[in-house]
Structures are given as C-alpha cells and as structure tokens.
C-alpha cells in the first residue's frame, strides 16, 4: 500500500511539471521517406485514434531514430532524425 501511494505521488508530481508551456511543437519538422497516415480507425470501436510512433534518442543526444508503419500498413520504416 505504501509503495503504491509513493508511486502515485511521484506520477502526480511528474504530471504537474508537464504543462503545455513546457512542451514545444515542431509541425512538419521531419520529412518522412514514405507516406504515413497518423490517424486510423480503432478496429474495436471504429473511432479514429492517433498512431504511436516509437522514437529513440541515444544517451549522448547525437543520434535519434523514428519508426513508423507506412500508409500501406505492410512495411515498418526506421528513419534517422536530426535531434538538434
């Protein structure tokens, strides 16, 4: 019980620090090599939802990669991204 309470407290403190003013948006800042549809219907509800795209950044911050499923929904592409 104490561990759960501690975990929930840490999560709430982390979320409190994450505000819209601390986030930056960079619209169309990465050119993808293949067509990509970020919104797709959920098969269980039919409602549209945004796809998650895995992103990895090296510990030194010099190398980053973005993985995405292309619009044909048959191929996964991993593309290097400039993290600066």
TrEMBL record:
Name of protein: Dipeptidylpeptidase IV N-terminal domain-containing protein
Key words, A-Z: Signal
Taxonomy, superkingdom: Eukaryota
Position of the signal peptide: 1-16
